[in-house]
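Translate sequence into structure tokens.
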Amino acid sequence: MQTQTDLHLETLAVHAGVSADPHTGAVMTPIYQTSTYAQEDVAVHKGYEYSRTDNPTRTALQMALAALEGGRYALAFASGMAAIDTVLRLIKPGEHVLSGNDVYGGTFRLFDKVLSAYGIAFSFVDTTDVTAVAAAMQPNTKLVWLETPTNPMLRISDIAAIAQIAHARGAWLGVDNTFASPALQRPLTLGADIVVHSTTKYIGGHSDVVGGAVVMQDTAVYERLKFLQNAIGAVPGPMDCFLTLRGIKTLALRMRQHSHNARQIAHFLADHPAVAAVIYPGLDDHPQYELAQRQMSAPGGMISFILHGGETAARQVARATNLFTLAESLGGVESLIELPAPMTHASVSDSPLAVDPGLVRLSVGIEHAPDLLADLAQALAQVS
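Result follows.
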């Protein structure tokens, strides 16, 4: 009999966490839209007592997420930030977190503007430099935090090498795998202890639900995070879980198309006279191109670039696209364009993590690639 470890991701995405409903035979996981559950006797129930603690639709989602990442356990949350915040509750006042210096603006805001006020120390380092990571470790470092690829500069960090550094110092390695998704990268297999997702993005994949997830192997870490999930209560509702489960089923197919389209667009931008620089892990001039080739199965659907005309030109292009919608977020089937400095990364504008105001970020969708290229061509023509 095949086990989940024998199955490829395309198969797991369809089947993991899913079993026919025992009451009706429904193939799709039902939406258990209930807050409470009848008990057979005082404190005697069928595994569910209150939906903040557990809900069958959420259980199915968590099982699927664990299988996709190759983990033993997964927990679902109401947003990616709720997932990160809950992970950081593992850190005690007086302990230190070493973070990458190119992270989502909301992550930096949580670390620097919220959690630092509670006695947790944070420092930020270029995690593409393994030597710099080792040098920045402190005696009280409890967690090393990576995004790879990073948001928005698409830097790639060596997960296996940094896991060795963290573990040698008695620290956990946490990886935000949102930009790659488990279809392209599985950090737990490379030595990470904790993997986090904004399931709003590629895992959900349709820009219609907000959610987050944490996946891990260690039972003690799971039990503590499960306690915190229930105690804090930042959990997704059953409809959100259902939508995320539905999105997961096409994850592998979508990620192939995202990467296919993004490769073509990255090469187009690299050859365009209006473009000064293109940042994409699938281009061989990317600083960590060879690492991306080893660590990821495909370079993904995110592209950042800078125009010769700087911020003024960037704003013109962002306003001029038709198929690329000017909007925050990423990872949906539709293509998006944004300027991180005044949008997703406004919270780092007065910090060392500040983003070039002329940087443009694309989330390349699954549309027909020539249509997307034509849209970018007409927008770029206005600033050429």
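Note: Residues 251-270 form the longest helix (20 residues).
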